[in-house]
Amino acid sequence: MKTEGKVWVIFDAKNDKKTRPLSVVQAQMMILAFKTRDLPHYHIWTPGWNEWIPLSNYLASEQKHFVQAQPPEPVIKKQSNELLKSVKSSLKTDVSEKSTVSGIRRYTEVAPDETPAKVDYGYYYNEFRGDDLTLSGLPDKPNVEIVLSQKDLSSPKDRRANPRHDFKIESILITKKGTSFRSYSRNISLTGTLLEDEIPKDFFNRPFELILINKFEPDPRKNRVHLSGRIIGDLSDPRRLVFVEQSEEVNHKLKKMIDDYSFHQERLRRNGA
Predict the structure, then answer these.
(1) Residue 89 in domain
(2) By the number of CB atoms within 10 A of the CB, which of 17, 96, 118, 180 ranks highest?
(3) Residue 205 or 97, more confident
């Protein structure tokens, strides 16, 4: 049974606890219940991964399994409230205007509401029994040090202040065994990138080195950004990467590279205009 992307386990580093196997729906509902300030405490894993991934990094990537926004208020509930108000108003009018000869007030019988139809919010799938699954390859709990900072307390909107940019940047992937793969980014942000080409299987389920080359930096000592990366999302389309273990220095170099490309793109736009 192929369970990758269908079974999820969430680890709470603050309380040193992990969940039982969850379906996409169960994991989604748990994520929606998390407070934004608590997201740095959680890690996530699915069969096929060798390591846990910070939940906040995974949600900020281009994954297609989970959303973080709260669902809208069901329309049915609002309609039911309006119907109830209308019925109460009708009852008051009927009681005040109509009576029997004996003085006993009449009340209008109201048929019970029909059972409201279920609302599909777009991320529900067939349930399954987690007890029937065998989770092979579940890694040990991540070695996490909980450090709360202003950055950790930022909202999802703040984290998306680093949006994806449609920049074609030369990217070189290198495994620990020396296998290399060259491609170009289709889009990139401070947390990950989508490549133009599918990544070979040699890079699956393990971290690797990633080198991004800034063609607008003339100094060869400064035109490369060295990162660690992992493939995320559906392995049937292995082109999405998330950056892991970024230091402040690496994050600064990556931001400078994106700024360089943004500057040249804006200059080209002005020249074209």
Answers:
(1) no
(2) 180
(3) 205
